Every structure is written in C-alpha cells, then in structure tokens.
Amino acid sequence: MKCAEVRNFVRLYLDSELDAKHSFEVEQHLESCAECAGLFEAEKKFDVRIGKFLRIGQATPALWEKIEAQIEPQFAKAKALWPLALAASLIVAVSIIFFARSRPLDLANAVEECHSAYVHQITTPEFSGTVPSKIAQQFGDRLDTEAFNYRPSEPAFTSSGARLCHVEGVPVALILGHCANTPVSMIVFKKSELDHFPQTKRKLESGDPIACSRSGRFQFAARIVDDHVVCVVGDEPRLALEDLLKTVRRADG
Questions:
Q1: Where are the alpha helices (DSSP H) in 151-206?
Q2: Would the CA dihedral through 189, 24, 124, 105 be positive or negative?
Q3: How far is CA 74 from CA 59, 78, 85, 86, 99, in A?
Q4: CA neighbours within 13 Å on the CB side: how many for 70?
Q5: What's the CATH fold of domain 107-250?
Q6: What pLDDT score was predicted for residue 220?
C-alpha cells in the first residue's frame, strides 16, 4: 500500500472503521514509513485534544436552547448565501488541487516530516549493523542494501541506528543519529530515484556539488555520492551540515 492510499484511510483507521485486511495493510505501511507514521500520530494527538475540549462542562438542555437561539438567525442568513459559498469553495478546492499538481516536489520538504518524526521520538531506529533479511526483501529493484552503508566520518556524528523509510513513495535508507547533542537524520537512496524530486535534481545537475535549502526549522543539504543521493537534515547551521555531508563515504569503501 502506497503513502497516498494509506493517508486516505487515516480517519477510518483512527475511528476503527476499517476492515481487518485494510487495517493490517495500513499497520504494515506505518511500520516502515516514518512520514506516514508521524502524520497518523499527529492526527491521533489532535483527536485527543478535541476530545478533552468536548468533555469540558456539561451539555444541559438550557445550554443547548441558548446555543440554538444564537445560531438560528445566523443560519438563516448563511442559508441564503449558500449557493455563493458553494461556488467559492469549489473554486478554492480546484485551485488547491491545481497548485498541488503543478508544484514541483521539493525533497527538503519531503524529508522534513521524516526528521520531525525522529526529533519528536515518533520514529526510532529499527536495527544497527547489517540490514535484516526481512527488511532487505522489501527493497525490490528500487533500493539496495548499499544505501545503509553510508556514514559521515565526522567524529561529532554518532549513529543511533537505521530503518527503512518511504519519502513520497520512494524507499530510502534512514540513518538516525546526533551531531554533538542535536538530532540529525541522513537519508540515502539511489540516484535513479532523483527524478521524483525535480527541484533538487536541477540544483545538483546545475554544477552545485551540494544542494542546500531550509524547510521549517530545519536545514537541509544533499549531494551525490557514488551512485546514491545522500541528504542530511537537522537543526544545525547550514555550513555545519555541509561540512558533515562532505565527509560521508560508504562504510565498506
């Protein structure tokens, strides 16, 4: 099941309205995709906050009568404007869809969610050392075990372990660690998958050895090492991430 399919089931899954087959497929995907796992966790926390808010106070008949008396006049006005509101909503919805489809996908924004899930301890390492055969079987032809062999030689970087992740449907090696005391994620995938991220591809093919940008609170840097794309993301100064990225080599190389 792909990311887009899983996200369509987020409400049904959290409300326990999915059948057993689809629930199992969603859970399998969440185990290997930090991005979707972070989204589901954020949605679950939002539900908890809403539930707490709704449980405050007591909904007595007098309270409901007061609320209805205040709402009814406004509802009558809104009903008259409903056709215009519907038309405006459709225009906005179409515009959003058009913009989303026409906007080039930015790798920095895509991996930010992965790293954010790690920072908030939603995502944790699955293994250290050799990739377990069970995980290796998930790669197919799109990701090889070599992606997990890349590490910075910078002494300040310490690895906490790794896991298989999906970034917008692309399987990647996610190496989790710290630079000093700051969480840093390293994402590695085959160079052939770079077509999924045209903005980063243009930057790397324009002659710049390192593509840098900022996404939210995190700095992002990417470069091509051998036949893989290696990215680092973290709440570190850009130059510090660039220097860290320059030391990345294949561990068995």
A1: 198-205
A2: positive
A3: 21, 6, 14, 17, 33
A4: 6
A5: Phosphorylase Kinase; domain 1 (3.30.200)
A6: 93
Residue type, 122: I
> Do you know the residue count of the chain?
253
Place of tokens 């099941």: 1
In this structure, is the dihedral angle defined by the CA atoms of residues 82, 84, 88 and 91, taken in order, positive or negative?
positive
Mean pLDDT of 69-73: 67
What's residue 104's pLDDT? 41
Query: Are 204 and 223 within 8 A, CB to CB?
Result: yes
Instruction: Print burial letters for 34-72: b (CB count within 10 Å at least 16), e (below 16).
Output: bbbbbbbebeeeeeeeeeeeeeeeeeeeeeeeeeeeeee
Q: pTM (2 decimals)?
A: 0.62
Q: List the chain domain ranges.
A: 3-54, 61-101, 107-250
**78, 71 Cβ separation under 8 angstroms:** no
Read off φ and ψ for residue 127, nearest 5 degrees. -160, 165
Distance CA 208, CA 202 (A): 9
Between 229 and 78, the more confident residue is: 229
